[in-house]
Amino acid sequence: MKPSRRWSSSFRYALEGIATSFKTQRHVRFHCVAAVVVIAAAMALSLPVRDVALLLLVIALVISLELVNTAIEAVVDLAAPEWHRLGKIAKDAAAGAVLVAAVFAVAIGILIFYDPVMRWLGLP
User: Which PANTHER family does its entry note (predicted)?
Assistant: First the structure.
């Protein structure tokens, strides 16, 4: 197989994974909608490029971890369809990683948006 064909196949499989996760995982959809809202607000408030770059980075981190969480859940379910303590640990840890990233993303968003929103509202 040609290297370009392998690259295009890999890209297609990655897009299929993203699309499947978007279709089947409500948290992935929630984070994608939140990302659109955040980027729209950043553009509306004319945030500096550096701030937008940081927002894009934390958005990518959270959505990427959601995709990894989905993959871990699927593999655990495939390997052990019945409940198992180790499967629970794996799933909970993956979900915890998403939660940590999301909490810090919100904190970063608050830090970035606070002053521009206060100015927009005409508050000190």
Answer: DIACYLGLYCEROL KINASE
- 4: helix, strand or coil: helix
Catalytic choice (16, 66, 73, 82): 66
Evaluate whether 94 touches 75 at the Cβ level (below 8 Å): no
Alpha-helical (H) ranges within the chain are 3-24, 26-44, 49-79, 85-121
Is 73 one of the annotated active-site residues of the chain? Answer: no
Q: Return d(Cα 121, Cα 85) in angstroms, integer.
A: 50
Pairwise CA distance, residues 79 & 34, whole Å: 33
d(CA 60, CA 35) in angstroms, rounded, equals 9
Give which of 107, 20, 97 is closest to 65, Cα–Cα.
Answer: 97
The pTM assigned to this predicted structure is: 0.90
What does the pLDDT look like over 80-101, one tens digit per residue? 999 999 999 999 999 999 999 9
